[in-house]
Automatic annotation (TrEMBL):
Annotated Acyl-CoA dehydrogenase/oxidase N-terminal domain residues: 13-117
Keywords of this entry: FAD, Flavoprotein, Oxidoreductase
Pfam families: Acyl-CoA_dh_1, Acyl-CoA_dh_M, Acyl-CoA_dh_N
Identification of the protein by name: Acyl-CoA dehydrogenase
Family: Belongs to the acyl-CoA dehydrogenase family.
PANTHER family on file: MEDIUM-CHAIN SPECIFIC ACYL-COA DEHYDROGENASE, MITOCHONDRIAL, MEDIUM-CHAIN SPECIFIC ACYL-COA DEHYDROGENASE, MITOCHONDRIAL-RELATED
Coiled-coil positions: none
One MF annotation (Gene Ontology) recorded for this entry: flavin adenine dinucleotide binding
Length: 398
């Protein structure tokens, strides 16, 4: 399938099967405890490492397999069938974690860190959202350049994932407070053990438990200029491009969950007898299955279409619009599938430990994806902006 890949098609197919078995087997078993503790056990990280889950998405120069984006998204689809918090961790690991540094890092920092993602000896978190600001460019944290060339970082971030297992944070901050455009922002890689860097505790979440959420607080954190990502003033571009790809990973996550909910719902509908017949034979139930299948297949086509364009040119002109379309549709798809699943399962679906799969946990977990990488309103704003810019010409890369 991919002539550049360092593993054969057969090995890749086996890998997909292995990832599904892990997600629905040992990971799901561990999650029962994580639901209470909100912390992943060390065994989760070890299993992920032993099974190449930190490695598969990397370029071969950093220990990876040179998979293309379509293949990476297929792996994402498989592990997303498992617990939501683990999905969030592995999604991030396969994507923003290494991609931002790879694309925008200085040669010095890349030489120091890029080889350390493959076995998770380095992990990062991504910090854009602020309690006091709005989605995207409405950022108030500042990183002001000093006379000696260093930057002084002050401010806060909120709702940040993976803070309990990271050594560095990607931080978007204002470097030019007098500029009223997006170019007032810059992106930095910030060592989390720097003096003045603190974590602020957050409450437990509805689902996706264990993904290490916290707020960040910066008080005069001094940054070496080698930690600037891209150019000064390029921060919004770094964030938007990185988030676009991540939005499609969100869509692939929803795809994995939709597919599993569909399979579980068909199995349950075939087994559940009411008034002498399986409910699967009732037209009302068939309509639900049809809507779930249609939403899932449409989503798969959108995700694969994005990946094919991206593999031709990662900076193609359709990236932002298609990514937002993927994410928006994926929310609708997972909304349809989770609602219909609950109705098909009836009262049993509202309880933990269904023999068909974790109906109640899937229902809670998938709702985080409404918000990750931007709420539906923000996706619509992006689609409208890009659609107007491209004069409605949403095409394909050759
Ligand atoms: C599980 C989880 C993990 C997350 N992880 C991270 C992370 O690792 N890093 C990170 O930086 N952030 C993270 N976030 C934050 C996430 O990106 C934001 O929650 C999301 O972008 C929405 O922003 P907000 O919460 O500030 O909502 P608000 O900005 O308060 O928005 C509330 C509602 O108003 C709408 N709205 C807001 N402004 C406008 C406007 N100008 N025009 C129209 N509508 C508007 C929004 O679309 C939304 O529907 C995470 C969130 C969750 C739930």
């Amino acid at each position: 399938m991919n002539p550049n890949a360092k593993i054969s098609d057969e090995q890749f197919a086996e890998f997909l099967n292995k990832v599904r078995a892990l997600a629905e087997g040992p990971f799901e078993e561990m999650q029962k405890e994580v639901e209470q503790t909100n912390v992943f056990p060390q065994r989760f990280f070890d299993l992920a490492r032993e099974n190449d889950l930190y490695r598969f998405a990397l370029p071969s120069e950093y220990g990876g397999w040179d998979l293309n984006e379509l293949e990476i998204l297929k792996v994402q689809e498989e592990f997303s069938r498992g617990p939501g918090g683990m999905r969030m961790h592995l999604h991030y690991s396969a994507d923003l974690n290494w991609r931002i540094l790879n694309e925008y890092g200085t040669p010095e920092v890349k030489a120091e860190l890029m080889n350390k993602f493959q076995d998770k000896s380095v992990f990062t978190c991504f910090a854009l959202t602020e309690k006091t600001g709005g989605t995207g460019a409405d950022v108030h944290s500042t990183a002001i350049r000093q006379e000696d060339g260093s930057y002084l970082l002050n401010g806060e971030k909120w709702l940040i994932s993976h803070t309990d297992c990271s050594q560095y944070a990607y931080v978007i901050a204002v470097t030019d407070p007098n500029d009223d455009k997006d170019s007032r922002l810059s992106a930095f890689l910030v060592p989390m053990d720097a003096p003045g860097f603190e974590l602020v505790e957050m409450p437990h979440m509805m689902g996706c438990r264990g993904a290490g959420h916290a707020g960040l607080k910066f008080t005069n954190v001094r940054l070496d200029p080698k930690y600037l990502l891209g150019r000064e003033g390029q921060g919004m571009e770094v964030a938007i491009h990185s988030l676009s790809i991540s939005r499609v990973h969100i869509a692939a996550s929803n795809l994995g969950m939709c597919q599993r909910m569909l399979e579980m719902s068909i199995a349950r509908a075939n087994d559940r007898i009411t008034f002498g017949k399986p409910i699967a034979t009732r037209q009302a139930i068939k309509m639900k299955i049809a809507d779930m299948a249609a939403a899932t297949h449409t989503l798969r086509c959108l995700v694969y279409d994005f990946a094919r364009d991206f593999d031709v040119d990662p900076h193609n002109e359709y990236v932002d619009e298609k990514a937002a379309i993927c994410k928006l549709n994926s929310i609708q798809a997972v909304k349809t599938c989770s609602d219909e699943m609950l109705e098909i399962f009836g009262g049993d679906g509202y309880f933990e430990d269904s023999p068909y799969g974790p109906t109640e946990r899937l229902y809670r977990d998938c709702r985080a994806l409404w918000l990750e990488e931007g709420a539906p309103t923000v996706q619509r704003i992006t689609i409208a902006r890009e659609c107007q810019r491209l004069k409605a010409q949403l095409g394909y890369q050759d």
